[in-house]
Amino acid sequence: MYAKTEEIKVLRDPIHGYIHVSLQVIWDVINSSWFQRLRRIRQLGGANMVYHCAEHTRFAHSLGVYEIVRRMVSEVADIADSLNEDEKVTLMLAGLLHDIGHGPYSHAFEQVTDTSHEDYTCRIIEENTEITEILEKAKKNLSHEVADVIRHTGANPLLSQIISSQLDADRMDYLLRDAYFTGTAYGEFDLERILRTLRIHDGRQLVIKESGVYAVENYIMSRYHMYWQVYYHPVARSYEYLLHALFNRLKDLHDASDPSVIDLLAPIALSRKMTLENYFALDEFSCGYAFESLTKHPDPVLSDLAKRLRDRRLFAYSDTKAIDIEELKQKLRAAGFDPQYYLGKDLVSQKPYVPYTGNDAGAIWVRMRDGSTRELSNASNIVYSLIHGPVQDDNKVFYPAEAMKKEL
Ligand code: CA
After folding, report:
1. 3-state helix, strand, coil in the chain (%, to 5)
2. C-alpha dist (Å) from residue 207 to 6, 61, 212, 221, 381
3. How many angstroms does the Cα of residue 321 sit away from the middle of ligand 1?
4. Number of helical (H) and strand (E) elements in the chain, helices listed first
5. What is the mean pLDDT of residues 206-233?
6. What distance in angstroms lies between residue 399's CA and the mean position of ligand 1's atoms?
């Protein structure tokens, strides 16, 4: 019932070989201006400051998630058999659109603007945008059905498991893609083996066959390594802190009459509620231009932070335990740096896998050879040890290195 494209469209991709599109509605979404906007938003916030080829975009990742979902609904026999045509299309669209609401520099931006990309994702799908129109034209109510899968409020929970759980198409794509573009081998795992051993249990639950446990262990380990080596790399965090400081300084100045706070950044500077139109205009290209103009701003803090961002003059970092924060603050002040902007702290911690504890956090289930199911940590010694060890965390403080060179 969904119109097909005239021919199968193929888009070359270094992770999946090709992305295959044969439905008009998918093709139309890809060609919409909201989806094309994702070309202007990178997948990894600050990691390209460490791994210089990590410039890949949310556009590429979204296509990759779609392709994994497409393969799941057509090549994984259990999934193909248990979903109807409508559910398959809804699921492919949910995979394609799951990140449509991401803003520039994801995390720093979300914190400062107090927005969440999940909210924007559903708004962009449902609130009368070009995307809404494309979906509703393909089938009445489709926009809400796609948003329901992303929100986990749909009628069939299996659909949400496939695009967001601890073994989902989203993570499978970003781990492989981020590993490829950072050049780190840790993120690699055997996607083909996972797809080959995926099953549906009782018509409702995604499970992995017992013989696929090693591939899943490898996937969990790759996630663990990618967090510490890439996503939580202190240099990436230092870059994100600079963004955070710049946005905060912009907000603290919040002078609406200031002509140098260009229109683009006004909703952030003035903490105004953002319209979808404002949101659309904010991407990493337009923000890059805005930051460039802020390098000439009369406020010395704002212009200095903008220059540091542009030229990658990042803050140094130390373990919180290794430094006396009060002494550091004094040194910063003595060197003319306001600690409110020139001293950042952050704590990151990560659990590579969260076991099932009564409420479902998208745990991974294994179907044993005798037909029973077990939660992954009861089926894998490696995962069991990983979750029963101490939680690993990393507490860092960020500051301009030159302040430390000055003696008090
Ligand atoms: Ca994603």
Report:
1. 55, 15, 30
2. 36, 24, 10, 19, 18
3. 34
4. 22, 9
5. 95
6. 31
Provide the 3-class DSSP secondary structure of residue 195: helix
271-303 confidence digits (pLDDT tens): 778 889 999 999 999 999 999 999 999 999 999
C-alpha 183 to ligand 1 mean position (Å): 19
| Ligand 1 centroid from CA 62, angstroms | 7
Q: Where do runs of H (alpha helix) occur along 227-321?
A: 234-253, 266-269, 276-281, 284-294, 300-311
Give 408's pLDDT tier (boundaries 50, 70, 90): very low
Q: How far is 151 from 285, CA to CA, in rounded Å? A: 29
Span from the CA of 338 to the centroid of ligand 1 (angstroms): 36
Residue 408 C-alpha to ligand 1 middle, in angstroms?
A: 47
Cα of 283 vs centre of ligand 1, distance in Å, is 17
Provide the pLDDT for residue 359. 66
Length of the chain measured in residues: 408
The radius of gyration of the chain's CA atoms, rounded to the nearest angstrom, is 23
Distance CA 253, CA 64 (A): 41
Q: Please give the order of strands across the beta sheet that includes 344-350.
A: 316-319, 392-399, 344-350
Residue pointed to by tokens 């979903």? 83
Query: What letter does residue 100 receive in the DSSP assignment?
Result: T
DSSP 165: S
Spacing, Cα 363 to ligand 1 middle (Å): 18
Give the residue among 33, 59, 37, 35 at the shortest CA–CA distance from 285: 37
Nearest-angstrom CA–CA distance, 110 and 119: 11
Residue 64 CA to ligand 1 center (angstroms) comes to 10
Q: From the CA of 275, how far away is ligand 1's center (Å)? A: 23
Measured between alpha carbons, how far is residue 37 from residues 19, 66, 102, 253 in Å?
A: 19, 17, 10, 29
Q: Is the predicted pLDDT of residue 208 greater than 90, yes or no? A: yes
Ligand 1 centre to CA of 61 (Å) is 7
